[in-house]
Design a protein that fits this description.
Chain lengths: 222, 80
């Protein structure tokens, strides 16, 4: 399993993501700079979290228009798996690769804490290492994670099983509609989520609940 | 040159937590009777195009592709 991590100015979770992918797959991901238009031949592309372009205009708006994102969209259309975490999720939404939008947290405050996540769909390439409806712990750290979609879109993605992660046990930190924490595209190969599973993969993190996402998508570690 | 102003606002029905906070702060300052506040963005754009129709068409594309997120926002363009 070969993976790539996209790098853009202002992203700051790329090192954590590279460490997680390396530890779990046994292979370091290729890193790809925002101006690259020729992506390497990989099975998984990850857009990590941070504050690309200082969150100017809207979170992820400028990053989503960078050349590398056209290449990501082409790969996604061919079925390559893509994961966006936090700002990466915002970028995938702004690029039109996922449905809906992320708005300012309802509390208007930056939230940095641990939440509970329900695996709302365990029958995906991103979550098959988890049990259906399993509740896991996961850290969040964001200011704009308030997921919104219009009624028709919401009905469609709920009906299609595109809602993959939901905040559970009253821990919705941002006011997201239907407690949505992560969604995938209709084809099931592009996933975006606000929480940071890469920050809960080993004992030193205080737990390994986030590992399942990487084990699902990468296969169990060699 | 054509000078234009683009106003981007949240669509009706989209919750605006920032507008709500501003509304409540106005109440706190003693401004009674504020029934609602919606926050938006203003872009003043100067175009080299001199034909207003062509300028407006270009601005519309700019709004759809970048200035507004049409999932949650509406935009309006005024020229001159």
């Amino acid at each position: 399993m070969k993976s790539a991590v996209i790098q853009l100015p202002g992203l700051n979770r790329d090192r954590d993501m590279i460490a997680a992918l390396t530890k779990i797959s046994g292979k370091a991901p290729v890193t790809v700079w925002q101006t690259d238009t020729d992506l390497p031949d990989v099975d998984l592309i990850v857009i990590p979290g941070g504050f690309s372009y200082g969150d100017y205009l809207r979170c992820g708006a400028i990053a989503a228009r960078m050349p590398v994102m056209r290449a990501v969209a082409e790969k996604a259309a061919k079925g390559v798996k893509v994961i966006g975490v936090c700002n990466g999720f915002q970028i995938l939404l702004e690029a039109g690769l996922l449905p809906g939008a992320l708005m300012r947290n309802a509390s208007l405050k930056f939230v940095c804490r641990e939440v509970k996540l329900q695996i709302a769909n365990a029958n995906t390439v991103f979550t098959n290492a988890y049990q259906p409806n399993q509740i896991i712990r996961c850290p969040v750290a964001h200011h704009d994670g308030n997921y919104f979609a219009d009624a028709a879109t919401l009905e469609r993605i709920e009906g299609n099983g595109q809602v993959v992660f939901r905040y559970a046990d009253g821990t919705n930190p941002n006011g997201s509609i239907n407690d949505i924490a992560g969604v995938m595209n209709e084809n099931g190969n592009v996933l975006g989520l606000m929480p940071h599973p890469e920050n809960l993969i080993e004992a030193a993190h205080g737990g390994s609940d986030g590992r399942g996402l990487f084990e699902s998508v990468l296969g169990k570690a060699a | 040159m054509t000078k234009a102003r683009v106003i981007v606002t949240l669509k009706n029905g989209v919750l605006d937590p920032q507008g709500k906070a501003i509304e409540s702060a106005l109440g706190g300052l003693g401004f009674a009777g504020v029934a609602g506040v919606r926050q938006g963005k203003v872009f003043d754009v100067v175009l080299e195009e001199t034909d207003p129709a062509k300028a407006e068409e270009a601005l519309r594309k700019m709004c759809e592709q970048l200035l507004a997120n049409t999932v949650i926002e509406d935009f309006s363009i005024s020229i001159g």
